[in-house]
Every structure is written in structure tokens, then in C-alpha cells.
Amino acid sequence: xxRANAGKxxxxxxxxxxxxxxxxxxxxxxxxxxxxxxxxxxxxxxxHNIEHELRFRSxxxxxxxxxxxxxxxxxxELEKVxxxxxxxxxxxxxDKQLHAIWFCLPTDNEARMLTTAELDFFERCDTGxxxxxxxxxxFDSFDSYAFQQLRGEEVDFFEARxxxxxxxxxxxxxxxxxxxxxxxxxxxxxxxxRNMHEVDGHxxxxxxxxxxxxxxxxxALDTDALKLLxxxxxxxxxxxxxxxxxxxxxxxAAAQEALESGDFLPGKKFDQFIWNVGVSYPYLWTQLxxxxxxGIVTALPTLNGxxxxxxxxxxxxxxxxxxxxxxxxxxxxxxGADDFQxxxxxxxxxxxxxxxxxxxxxxxxDVGPYDTMEQNAKLLRIILDHKDIDCIP
Length: 393
Fold this sequence. Notes:
The protein is 55% helix and 8% strand. By secondary structure, it is an alpha/beta fold. The chain has two domains: 8-234, Rossmann fold (3-Layer(aba) Sandwich); 240-386, no CATH class. The strands form two sheets. The chain has a four-stranded antiparallel sheet, covered by helices on one side. The chain has a three-stranded parallel sheet with strand order 5-6-7, with helices on one face. Helix 3 links the parallel strand 5 and strand 6. The longest helix is centred in the middle third of the chain and has 25 residues, at 157-181. The radius of gyration is 24 Å and the shape is globular. Mean pLDDT is 82; it is low at 36-47. It comes from Botryobasidium botryosum (strain FD-172 SS1). This is G domain-containing protein.
């Protein structure tokens, strides 16, 4: 939701990896042709209906609903939004429920940074368990304004460029974000989007923005089931799967148990451990569970090297997470046991396994404790730093 020209369509296209406009469907599932599309110019927005569904062919698992901006008839529009949210909150069917709200707020015009209607939403609209993520778009314009301020204070050009982002963030936090957070129903998460229209490095900017938005959305969701549902829909966003898996804490908890017992995942605990890694990767896991466990057991002496039991557990959790991520990211269609076996061999032959073991050895000692948030964050950082394995056979 958000006013016109807030960047809503740009964000949706980025999330779904599409250059095309979404297809629009009415409440009965019938497609509305382009001439009646709610994304046409403002003059045609009278037919707008928040109940209409927006879907992209590139990622049809996502279903979006777009509220008309609050520029005109704000009270009436706000009531429609509240009614829609309340009705979807009591739906029993998961595919009819509303799971998250992305509220786009443009920052390229400080005179209209926050409208009365937008603040009214955060003051009057109780979304219940549906989290709101405030997305402040076009934030590079705010950076430019901060740069000009610094130059007006006779700060050197290059120093002003260096300090502009921090100045923009500080000013925005103090003057605008605080106003939103003081309302009765503030957003659960917020994101500032910069440089979405830059030509140089465009793909990296898009990828980084989408990853951050989906991570914040996943963090804001109330249940593990909804987190997995989000990862299932955005099945190629591996970092969400990795983060959800490691943030559950089961790897570091198992390492702590290995420290106290002196044993590396005895008996069925190994199977359960690998299962806990894999369940975060939708579509992949049901195809490969038994084959992956068998393949890992055979390769254990090589994989764990001379690490002590708790570090073996940390290394196994990191490696299995990376393997699942690579298979999800690099391959399409059916994934078989041969795919995993080739990946396992490549992981060692390429030196990737040795690098992960070295990182584990460097970051973690032999005495623990391991089941802390700090240790969990270390493990996640190692995995994200080593997750990209080139030249998969």
C-alpha cells in the first residue's frame, strides 16, 4: 500500500524477478484485462478495488493486494483498508489470509514526507497479527538533500559524500521515524531503499534490496509456518532459508550438547540434525533426505577432519546448510542423489570445505559455551561468507 508514485510496482517486480506488469484478477478469479488494470494511470484508478489480486507469471505464489493511495478521500480509503485487513484476519484458509503489509512511503519530497492520512493509518489501523513493514522508498533523494546541507556548511566535497548517508539517516530518525513510532500501531519493521534505478550495479542493488525486504518480512512474521511459507513462495532466495535455519538455534544447541557429552551426534540424533537443516529448504528436501544422510555418513571422516566434537557439529551444520543452499540456487527441476554426490565431491575438491573448517576453527574455541546469540551470529556469518561455490559440476 502507499500513495501514487511511491515505488510500489518497482518493488513488486523486483521481488518477483519480473519486467512485466502483474496480471490482475477479481474476487471470482477472473483475469482483468490491461484496459481495466488498477496499475494504469491515475485517470483510470476509479475502478480500483483492494480485493483484486495481483500476480506475476514469474512468481505466481505471491498474491498482492494494492490499496489506492490516500491522497484523496483519505478517510473513506482508510476505512476500506481497515475493513479489508479485519476481514482477511478472520479467514480460515491460508491462501485467503493477509500475511504481511508493505507500506511504501516515498522520501523524495520532504514537504510531503508524511501525510496526515499516512500517520492516521499508524494511529488508527490495528492490523492485529499482520505485521506492517514500512518501506521508505527513493531514500537516495534524502541522501542528496543531506549532501547539499553538508556542502552548505562548507564541508569538503568528498567528505560530504562520505557523511551524507549517516546525516540523512540521523535526520530521518529524529524528525520522521520518531513520529511514526510514537503512533498507536507503529510498523514492526522498516526498510530504506536507495538507488533502485541506478544503471551501474543495478542487479546487485535489486538483489540486495529484495533480500533485505524478505528477511525483514520473515522476521516480522509470527509463526515458523508462515516463515516457511514465505521461503517456499520466494524459493530462490536462499539467504532467507539459511537465516531462518541458523536463527532457530538448533546447530549451536547441538554443539553445546556435544561439548557436554563428548560425542558427535550419536545414533538417530545425526539423522534429526540433518533433517533440521533441510526443512528450511522447500521443494528440495523431500527429494533428497535419505540420500543426503547416506552420502554424508560415508564422507564424515573427510568432512570433519580433526575437529573436536562440538566444532564437528558446527562444521556439519554450516556445510549442510551451504549444500542445501547451493542445490536450491544453482539447479532447477528435479534434484537427485547424483546431484548431491557431485556437489559433495566438488565441495572438498575445490577447497570450499577446507575454508569452512578453517573459519570454524578460527571463530570458535573448544570450551564453549556455544548456545548463545553471539555464537549463533558468528555461525551465520561464516555460512553467508562461504555460501557461494562456483563451477558446480
